[in-house]
Amino acid sequence: xxxxxxxxxxxxxxxxxxxxxxxxxxxxxxxxxxxxxxxxxxxxxxxxxxxxxxxxxxxxxxxxxxxxxxxxxxxxxxxxxxxxxxxxxxxxxxxxxxxxxxxxxxxxxxxxxxxxxxxxxxxxxxxxxxxxxxxxxxxxxxxxxxxxxxxxxxxxxxxxxxxxxxxxxxxxxxxxxxxxxxxxxxxxxxxxxxxxxxxxxxxxxxxxxxxxxxxxxxxxxxxxxxxxxxxxxxxxxxxxxxxxxxxxxxxxxxxxxxxxxxxxxxxxxxxxxxxxxxxxxxxxxxxxxxxxxxxxxxxxxxxxxxxxxxxxxxxxxxxxxxxxxxxxxxxxxxxxxxxxxxxxxxxxxxxxxxxxxxxxxxxxxxxxxxxxxxxxxx
Amino acid sequence: xxxxxxxxxxxxxxxxxxxxxxxxxxxxxxxxxxxxxxxxxxxxxxxxxxxxxxxxxxxxxxxxxxxxxxxxxxxxxxxxxxxxxxxxxxxxxxxxxxxxxxxxxxxxxxxxxxxxxxxxxxxxxxxxxxxxxxxxxxxxxxxxxxxxxxxxxx
Lengths: 378, 154
Ligand SMILES: [Zn+2]
Fold this sequence. Notes:
A: about 375 residues; Peroxisomal Thiolase, Chain A, domain 1; about 40% helix; B: about 150 residues; 3-stranded antiparallel beta sheet; 2 helices; binds zinc ion
């Protein structure tokens, strides 16, 4: 079968950019093409990851995005979840039609309303919206169940924020750069009790681009291509009340990706993971669902030090979404960071161990309604 | 701090007119009459509230209407202290998933009826599994706020 590689990666800082959205998009896409030594007209096609009205105040946002991505006179498409943009790009290579595909995700969080008013619009206007349901509300209700059902402690959840914000200090692209202690997190306001302010992701800017290539083309474009070896995705019901918030679709998505990648012991076979954790406790829950530890063991797992930067399975060495949250682009950021770890190009936040297999995860919707899992290999 | 570049504010207001359809119209009309109605799936037996036209699991039409009690138990909850644009009410307030007696899913609504600034009351009344009952709004418009909130039953 045809193989797909990531040959190059470029990303912007998550901090507020002074550029217009179109210029901001252009800079990163210009950078990746320069790195690859490609002219705009030489790129096969383009898949964008961007969101419309609520995240950019534009309708049909891709129409505005195309110029900055270099899509003029090309075939292209777009998804609002950037992990989907990635897999759609991979499929175009697998189809045999294209040798290269540029996948780019973009947003300027600094320009649009806060996350809570925006995610309130995930809810329908007659039932969920009028009773104040938003992403943080559902996450807080999910966290309470997580604490109560498994006896995981609030301190164990807070440790995720301490770890990820600590890692972000070594990532020049991170948005929230602040050393926080366990006491700082625990003492931060209980904004959505039991969720604390420092356990909730910020709102960031971000453009991230990955260049995909067919096997043959990848070998001429890069000395160290990173290969797609597994992918899985699964969706849950819309209404949070129709689901068990602790038994979502991530195990199903992960199993699909693991099967494709030939992974039967993820805790041992995966060297590093970039997990989408807009709320601190979710990293523990997602790691359970990814099979890194057993059901209800997330708290003990972080206590063990396994997911630390120098641990046996580092999780979010980049600082994750708790440090940088360019909302629709955050999935592709995870994929780009996982690729950089395999390429040994992550810089100061390169993990100490040798990385041959990396996992990237993305999620969106209330309480993780949808999950995507990507496995990359050296 | 003044920015070194110009920004331009742009507010967008657009009207949308959503159809409720037959099933949701009947559900909301029921609220106006003080009834909470669900629909039952003949395939798996689940009772959904608010009522649904189809079971999302079996992917078949629901056929039977059932009245569920305006009371149930708290599945999980959060106390909202954060303030944000366009919020449905002034914080603090409590949003919960409530399993209504006779239904098989969580119903999203507010919990209230006591002083949320009183830590002792909060601890005593807001518990997973606690029994709650609906408080009906004095003014009803056939919408979800025809229920003001659910209050803990001692
Ligand atoms: Zn059914």
